[in-house]
């Protein structure tokens, strides 16, 4: 069967959901040349927000990592919707991770590892990326984490 992104997802027990529809006046992804940019993805599973509130108050770092992993799964779902084939990914260029957190929470980078580790596992060498992890006061729908991505396509 070969070492494909789909095989690695299957080995991890991950089935990509249908790509989430926009919640406001924007598109879920946009392509410019060979770059695909995703809108921010929330930690949704089966259409429901799975992590809400602030890191450092309502959630700990481990729960934030799990939320970031869900965001990464939803990023892949958007890429699948945009391209029809995850094998079109040449490389993941950058992700920006927004972490709703209390002013004294300083582990945004560790929360972001939930997405970075998952994407590196699934995409292999193509999954090594630049990253920003930013603490914010609040996110849409009171989500704990939101992640956007820039992907280079083949």
**CATH-wise, what's the superfamily?**
RutC-like
Query: From the helix content, strand content and strand pairing, which structural class follows?
Result: alpha+beta
Number of helices: 3
SSE string, helices as H and strands as E: HEEEEHEHEE
- Gross geometry: globular
DSSP E strands, number = 7
In quaternary terms, these chains amount to single chain
In the predicted model, the low-confidence regions spanning at least 5 consecutive residues are none
Distance between the termini: 21 Å
Strand order of the largest sheet: 1-2-7-5-6
Give the % helix.
25-40%
| CATH class type | Alpha Beta
| CATH architecture assignment name | 2-Layer Sandwich
CATH topology description: 60s Ribosomal Protein L30, Chain: A
Model description:
The protein has 154 residues and is an alpha+beta fold. The protein has a single domain, classed as 60s Ribosomal Protein L30, Chain: A, CATH 3.30.1330.40. Helix content is 30%, strand content 26%. The strands form 2 sheets. The chain has a 5-stranded mixed beta sheet, covered by helices on one side. It has a two-stranded antiparallel sheet with strand order 3-4. Strand 3 and strand 4 form a beta hairpin. The mean pLDDT is 97. It comes from Neoaquamicrobium microcysteis. InterPro entries: Endoribo_LPSP/chorism_mut-like, RutC-like_sf.
């Amino acid at each position: 069967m070969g070492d494909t992104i789909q095989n690695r997802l299957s080995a991890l027990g991950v089935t990509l959901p249908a790509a989430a529809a926009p919640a406001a006046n924007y598109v879920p992804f946009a392509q410019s040349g060979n770059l695909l940019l995703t809108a921010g993805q929330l930690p949704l599973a089966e259409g429901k927000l799975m992590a809400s509130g602030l890191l450092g108050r309502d959630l700990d770092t481990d729960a934030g990592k799990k939320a970031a992993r869900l965001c990464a799964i939803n990023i892949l779902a958007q890429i699948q919707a945009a391209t029809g084939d995850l094998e079109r990914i040449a490389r993941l260029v950058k992700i920006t991770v927004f972490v709703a957190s209390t002013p004294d929470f300083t582990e945004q980078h560790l929360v972001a590892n939930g997405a970075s580790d998952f994407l590196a596992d699934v995409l292999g060498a193509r999954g090594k990326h630049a990253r920003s992890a930013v603490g914010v006061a609040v996110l849409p729908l009171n989500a704990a984490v939101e992640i956007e991505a820039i992907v280079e396509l083949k």
